Every structure is written in C-alpha cells, then in structure tokens.
Amino acid sequence: MAATIEEEVQRAAIAVIQPTTDPATRRHASKFLEEFTRKTESLDVYVQWLTSFRQQEQSILSGATVNIHEYRIPMQMLCLTMLQSKLRQVLLQRSDGHTANPNLRGIAAIRTELWEYLRQQPSLDRTLVGPCCICNAIVIVRSEGALAEFIANASQNLLGLPQETVLRIMSCLPAEMEARQDLTASQVREGLQIHIEAALDMIRKSLITNENRPSVVMAAYQALQIWIEISHASLTQINTPTYGGPHAILPAVIQLLSSSSNSGNDEYNELTLQSAARALMAAIMVVSDSGTTTRQSAAAQIWQAIPQGFIVQPLQIATMNEWHDATHALSSLLSTFVVEHIDDIVKNPAGMGLQVLLEIQLHPSTSVALIPLECWLTIQEIPTGERHEHWKQPLYKNLVEILLRRLAYPPQFTSWENESEIVEQSDFLEFRRMATDVLVSCYFLLRYEMVQILTQHVRAATDWRASEAALFVLAQISKDVCARCRSHAADGTLIARDRHATQQELLQLLEQLITVDSCVTNAQHKYLLGSVLGFCGNYSPAWTVCPPQAILQLLVYLQSAFGKMPVESGKATRAIYVSCLAKNMPNLEDDYSSRREGENSVLPMILKSVRTSMEAVLLTSDEEAMTTVAEGATRVVTKLVNPEVARQAMTTDLIQPVLNHIYAVLKALPESNNAAEWMSPTVQSAIESLSRLLSVIRIISRFCDAPHIPAMGEWLLHQIDPCLQLVQQRTASTLAQSFILPKWISIHQQILRSTLPQQGTMITIFTNTIPLIVQALEQTNDPCTLKYISTAVETFGGQTMEMDNSFTDLLAHVTVEVTSKGDLSEAMEFLQAYFECLQRYILYCPRALCCNPQLLSSILKIAVESISVIEAKESTRAALIFLSQLLGWKSLRLSPQSSQILAEAWNSSILKEMIMMYGPTITQSCITGLTGGPQMLMAAYSDTLFSLCQSIAMNEKEELGTPANPANNISSQLNENLIRNWLFSSMVNTNVTNNIDTDISNQIIVILLALARDDFRSRPKAKSKMLLADYAKIKSGEITSLISYQLP
Fold first, then answer.
1. Considering the entire predicted model, what is its pTM?
2. For residue 824, what pLDDT is reported?
3. I need a surface site. Which of 89, 222, 486, 832 has the fewest CB within 10 A?
C-alpha cells in the first residue's frame, strides 16, 4: 500500500533529526521537507501534526507509555521551525493578494491549534515554547486587527497563558513586524507606535507585580528592549504614564538598575540587567524628542539617580560575577547617555556620574574600557567657556593618569608568547590604538602640563611598565608636541612660554634616558628600550635646539642599541639625521671652512659618526634597519654644499663601509658552480647578506640626488660599478642568481632614473650593462630585467636615431623570448612586465615600436592572445592598457617628437593595417571580458574598446590626417560600418551567452560610436565607461534597460 503524505513527511523528519542518519540521506530528507512546506496542502498536514503532538503529550500526562516516540521533542521542534517559514509564506501571500483561493480553513485551524499547543503549559517542554511563540507572533502581525486584540487581552490577563509566555510572544511581535516584506522600515515603526502605549502599559504591569518570578521579569525586559529598539520609542514615551495613570515604565527600569540585590539565578540576573540596560539605551538614542522639556525631565531623573546607585550597584555586581555582556551593556548605557546629553551635563558639576565613567575607563576588560573613549572626545567638542570647571583641565589631568594605568602592560608581563598572560595581545594593542585620539585631545587642552605629567611618570617610575606606558603616550602625541616646539610665536607670548617649557622638559628627560646604558634599559625589558629609542626619534624636531655635541652624544647612544633593537635604533637615527643634522650641514660646513688649521670642528666628528652608524647597522642582519640608516645618512651627506667634500664623505663614510662588507661576503662564495657547495648554510647566509647589502646600495643611489652637485648619480655609479661587475660575475649562472639579480638590476635602474641621458659615462655604462641584462633575461625570464629595459627606454628613448634602432633590436629580441615560451599563461608576471615595457615604448620611443611592421604585428598578436586570458588579471590589464594607448595615442600626453612619429605611422597605414588585422578579435575579447570578466578588468576592457572605436571614427572624420599614399584604400575601409559590424557580431556571437535583444545591442552601438566621434573636451571616455558598465549589468540581469544617455 502506498504511503500517505503524512507518513512520508514523518519518515523524512525522523531521517533529519536522527543522529545516525548518513549525510546524503539527511540532505535528501531535508530537501523533501523544504519542497513539501512550499505546497498548499502542507498546512493541513501541519495541523494534523500539531494535533498528534498535543494528544501525545496528554497521553503522557495520563500515564501512558505506549507509542511514545523517542524523538518526540526534536520532532516537534522541527515541525515548529518549518511551520514558521510556511506561515510567513502563506500569510504574506494573503496580504499581498497573490493567491486567488487561499486556504482560509487551514489558516484558521493552524491558529487555533497553535494556541492550544501553547496552553499545554506547564507540561509543554520549555524548549518548544520559544518556537511556538514565534509561530503565534507570525500569525498575529499578519492578521488584520490581531495585534491590537492580543495586546488588549494580554493587559487584562484574558489569554489563558502564563504571564512569561505572553511576554515572550510580545518579544516576538516587533521582530516579526520587521520581517514583513510588504512593509517599509518606517511603516513598521508607525505600525508599532500605534500600540506602543498599550505595550508599555502591559510590560510595566508585569514588572510591578511583586509575586512575579525572576523569569517573568527577565521576559518583560526582553520584550521592552525589542519594542523600544524596533518601534523607536523615545525617552519621553517611556517616562509618560500610560492611559492617564500615575505611573510610567522609566522609574521601574531605574529602580532595577539601581538595585544591589544579588539573589536568584545568575543567568536571570545577567540577562535581565543586560536587557534593561539595552532597552533604556535604545530609548536614549532616539532623538525625535530632543530638546523637549519632557526629555530633559527624563534625563534629569536618570542622572540624579546615579548617586543613589543607578548603574553603580549593578555594574559592581556584573563585574564581580564576570558577567561580561551585562557589564558592557551597563557601561554603554552610561556612555551613550553622557554623549547624547553632553551639552546640558557639562554645564553643571560632574558629580557621581563622572566618577563612574572614569571607573569604567579603568575596567580590566578591553571591550568595556573602550566604551568611554567617545565621551572624552565629545566633551572636548564643547568650548571650555561653556563647561563647568569639573569638565576642564582637572578632568583631563585625571584622565591622563587613568589612561597611563590602563595602557601599561599587565603585571608580571614577560612576553606575548607566555600562555599565562591574562590579557590578549590583540585586545591590548586595540586599546592602545583606540586611545590615541583621546590622548591627542588631552594634549590640546593641557599642553605643557600633560608633557610634564608624562615626563614625571618616567622619572619617578620604579617599574618598567609605568615608564614604558608614559613613553608610549609621549609617542602618540609627539607629532603635535613637535609642532608646538617648531612654533615661531614671539617671545613672551603664551605659546612661546609653553614652547620653551615643553622643550626644556623634553630635553631633561632625554638627558636622563640616554645617560642610562642601553644594556641596562634592555635588561629591564626590550619594550622599554624600544620606547626610549622611539622617544629619541619621535621628538627629533625638538632636539634642533641642542648643540651638535649633544646630537653626537645621542647618536652614540643609538649606535650602542643597534645590536639589541636594530629597527627602532635605525628609525631614530634616520629621524635625527633628517631633522637635526641635514638642515644644519651647510652651516657646519661653513664653520669647518672658516676654522684655522689645528682648531677643532664638528663636521669631521659628524661624518665620523655617520660612518660609525653605518658600520654598526651593517653588523646586524636586519635589512630594514640597514636601509633606514643608509637613507638618513645619504640625506645628510648630500646637504654638503662643496661637491668635493660631499663626494669624499659619500665615498669614505657611506659607500666604502658597504663595499667592504660586499667584498668580504663575495670571498665566502664558492669558486665553482657545484650545487652542493652553494646550498651549504654558510653560503646561503652569505647570499642573504649580499642581498641585504645590495638593498643598501640601492637606497643610497635613490637618495643621492643633489641638485647643487652635478652628475651625482653618474659619479656614484662610477664608484660602485667595479663592485657591481664583480657581484654579477660571481653570481651569474649560480643558485644565487635568482636572489641577487633583482637587487643588482634595481640599483642600475635607480641610477638611470636619477641621471640625465646626455651624461657620457652613463651611456657607456648602460651600453656595457644591457648585454648582461639580456643574458639574464634569457637565462631567468625574471620580470626585473624588463623593468630595467623600461627605465632605459624612458631615459634614452628618442635621443638619437642610433639609440632608437638599438631599442628596436632589443624589443625584437625580447619579443622572440616571449613567443618562445609557447604557453604564455605560465609566465604571467614576465608577460605583465613585457606589456608595461611596451607602454614605455609608446610614450618615449615609439619609433622603435612602429618602424618594423612585422615586429609590431607579432607584438599585437601576443597582446590579443593575452587579453582573452581573463584569469591572469594583472598581465591581462597590462596588455589592455598597452592596446588602449597604442590605439588611442591621439589622446595621450606625448612629446611633440613622439606625437609626430605616431602620426607618421598612422598616415603610412602601419597602425591602420594592424587595426584591420586584429580589430575583430580585440572587439570580441573586450565584449567577452565586459560580460564575463573580473570586475577589476572592466575599466581596462572599456578603455581599449573605446580607443578602437575612436581611432576608426576619427579616421573617417579625417582627424588623423590624409594617408601618405592616396592609392592605399585602407583608410576608406576603416569606417563606422566596419566597427559597427564588429561590435554587433561580438554581441550576438553564439559563444557569448546573453539575454540582450537586438534593439538594445544596436542602441548601445549607436551611443558608443556617437561618443567616439565626440571631441575630447566632453569627456567621452568616461561616458563610454558608464555605457559599457550598463551593458555588463544588462548582460548579468542587474538592470533591464539603459539609463538615459544624452547623445553628443
């Protein structure tokens, strides 16, 4: 006999809930139940299902044990959960009128059965009450007049349900109203506001009944929270007596949140406090009654209740019991109240409320301590003249002291790797990050007083944690403090006095810090030494008033710390070089020149210090520290006015220490190409060291540019070229090449950028270098080789016909190397660098690109193949940009020479032939990419397609000149009919899945070509991007028609 639908549903439900069901069967059963629920007849089955459950529960009460299913509770839970979806579906359809013959009988039956199901309490399992309340709420909010009827009956206790259950249904009603898809957010609020007075009255009555169980009180506050949050009930509304009576609900909330009782179930206490606090906070955040006397009256009740224990008592209980959510809710309540009523609060004495805020600020929980930070910033937005004295400097002095304690590392802290640490590193660092704005705000109010507080904390601290915290705060405000130190205010003014006092305070602290050996400071904790080094560097603008000897003493201290904290020492050293020495070097040089022989001068001591710092940092293995110090030292040396002195210093004090280390490392490399020798730990360490040293050379070459010293880059390359040649010889065709080659090339590339192309030495060295680059390209296919060629093209391109011819040969060789790869998708980074190099050819050396049509055709073939590989995003984008620039060269900002060369290539039909040859494929690839490619390539596809259309449209208008050979008919073939056919064919190509009809395709083509004919003053390219973006959206189904486009 065939199974009935009820039996099939029951079997499927059992399969879903049984723990022994295999995954495939469970998925099949779940899918069956979902499909069944969408059917019209499922409502009748749910009625039968609920009835059978209720009858089963009654049998259990009467003592029956036969036919009791072991999964009866999970079965009922599953039934009620699926029923929620069914009710939302059916009742939404009824309210929208989408169903012609709704099952009114089934809906009425399910409403009755749901109500009877709830009335089984107290025998009904508590886990089933919540899902059943949701089902009833779904029916109530989607049935006309049912919401008002329910609240009225609930207020008079006529529902026949336990009070806790009634309140739980009340909690579900606003959420279900919000879930109605036929209502807007404002309609939901308006619908709930109609019933807000009745709802508040009903909830208030539940709260004031003395015999109510804790669970009832908790349910009442949960209902209050959700009603206020979704209906946007204001502070005025919850402080207004309901139905003309003498009582409002706000006093009841204040009373609960002032209670010191800690009796009852812990879970009840936490959840109740949490709900009550969030309910009141939600009302405070509603601003519809702002400025009214009724709101001010309610706010006064709240603020004046704090001395009587409001928030204070429950916050102590929550903290003691580690109720984190309740603590967070209570703290947020007070903070939100202060922020929303700040204008009125700060006009009066602070009282207990401020004290509680400061205690919250010191709370050990990071999430709680973060809450009051907004309050301090908000207070600072109020002019001090409008604040009571309690809310001015005294408050922020106290706040600085509290934040210092809160920002300190935990007691007995050793390291974050220590699992016994009670504070999470992420929490600690987050608080430090979030507190920065408040610290800066404190400084703007306190100025010198804050600096004095912090320096005294450092001096008086007996624990490294306290010193480190004060130094951390000094670091956060250093930018603004240094701005004050750089102030040019006239002596005798308030600002000048503050500036002088601040500088003296900082200098005294600096002197105290650097007199302590860095080893001693590091022994206390490395974080303390890091903060000391940070202080030395962050406040370097304040040390400009120090004599050079004091700066040298400070540099000696930093040099002693390189071995312990190289990065921090390096950053501080660089800062002092840039802020204190670089600006004074010309003066020191003058002083050195004017002294008679035998007299002491500071300049040699400074240059010696530079060399000492370089030698100290080169002994570390930290590349960041090495390059940082090298940058600062280069900036100092290049400020020397005398070219000879500058070059001598650059050689002796800066370059030579690095070269000495490079030569020493090269001696450690094997003489043979034996792989085993190159893989030894010693050699690998030497290779890594060589790589770091080359990075230092690159930084020096980057910052060695000095306008007053001619040919500085050329001179530098002359100094380092022998060493670089040796490096290349020792590492070529070895396992070290892949590590060293990019650094070696980047040095040459950097020097090319900083030199003039006419400098003879540079041309000679470039001529000697380029064969090595080509050899490396052939051996490694490293993208850095092509980046060097790009820089060379940018530097020397277009200088002479001979140079351009050499770049043509070079490009041909590179192109052969690219095409020899076969599968281009395996070398995407190399391909990306290739197309970026071609972009430089268009801009700086177009003759090398266009003088050989066969080479240009090979290049375009590679580009066309690449733009169809949409997975390789970066290389595809580079190819598209190249094509866009080549096709749309008329819109580029080119030199007159480059423009003339490209115009000649166009007029001689070289570029036109390329368009005729590759135009259809480019069009198809762009259309395909627009409709199915990644979002990051959309702009590039649009630009390329528009450039193609524009070049053809301009040709027809004879914008680009007449062909040199009148017999050539390519110009006449390049017309709008041609590009129109290419576009239409690509859009309707069967390989491109699309739902766009012919009319829309034609409409897009017409607008696109109209934009292509437009001049460059009306931004046609930007408009074409929007048009093609709409095309892609129509293709994807996001929109169904074009927006209005105004044709040019």
1. 0.82
2. 60
3. 486
